[in-house]
Structure formats: structure tokens, C-alpha cells
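Exam revision sheet. Question 4 asks you to relate a sequence to its structure. Input first:
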Amino acid sequence: MDVNVSFYDENAAQLAEQYDSVDFESVHDSWRSYWPLSGSRVLDVGAGSGRDAQWFDSHGCKVVAIEPSAVFRQLGQQRTSATVHWVDAQLPDLSNPDALSHNFDLILVSAVWMHIPVPKRYQSLCSLVERLAEGGRIVITLRHGAFGDGRTSYGVSLAEVEQLAQRLGLLICHVEDTEDGLSRTGLTWQTVVLEKYQHR
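Answer key, C-alpha cells:
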């Protein structure tokens, strides 16, 4: 099993309490103007405690929450309504075609990208683009700061995301730097909003 999935299985309850101590609005304020409208189809990749999935659901979105940690999925299902569809899958391939067959208006990849090895990031973004509706958006948060608890992470940069986006025909429509929502020392975030071209 992936070392990070094992970590999240073992520490899910503690991490869920930590994640849920801050709300969606404050954590994701940097891309507020791109928040989905009621009726939007949303894919939450690495949904963790379900905090964000529940917010989308409570605002009328149709939500699929992807989480490879079995313990986190169980916690998330308990904390979200029955209309949130939880799926056992992870990047780069998101191998669960039945649950992920339709196109999404918004795909959120929050606090996930740094866990994906660099050679697998192009494939990961391809998997997301395949599931994105025309005019849909992918929101990726980039963690700048190392882990000190055994989790594995790999370096991230805006330049890398820009290169991948260009290869896949995505527009970068928003970038914003933010401090860590949990005020952890030596940790900052960068939010990147990507948009799929609409064919006219």
C-alpha cells in the first residue's frame, strides 16, 4: 500500500479534526470567484474528511468525492450527506470508470499534487482533463513546505503546472499565493485555476 495512504489511514481521525477546524470559505477564499454554482457537477480529488465535498453538496452541487484512504472514506461518509458519492480511487489513473464516467464542471485537487511523483503528473492531469466538461475548471493547490511526519512529497512549482497545462490545451485563468489556513510554520500555498477550452 502507498505510504501516504497508510499514513492517512492511521491518522485519519486526528487529521479530520484538524482539517475541519477551518471552514471551506476561509481555506478556499483565494478562488472565490470560481466557486461552482448550484447544479454544477463537482469532483473532489483527495476528499479527506469530506469538509469541501459537504460544502459543495450543501450549495446544490452534484458531488463525487475520491479518497484512497479507507478510514478517511468512512469518516467522510459519516460527515457528509448521502447524496455525496464516495469512490475509492486515486491519481494518476482514477480507475473507477463507472463512478467517473460523466464530465465535471469543477475538479478540485486540494492538498494532493505534492504527493504525486513528478513523472506521473502529466498522466494525472490527463486523467482529470478527460473527465472535465468543456468550459470546466480544475483547481489545484500547491503546497510549498516539507512534511516532518513521514509522509512522502515531491517538489511543486507553478512553472511545471504551466507547462503541463499548455501541453493539454488548458488556460491558466487564476493564480494566487496564500498563507497556510492552519498557521503551520514554514508552509505556504499557491492556488492555480485551469480552464478547458470551449470549442465554438
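Marking note for examiners. The mean pLDDT is 91.
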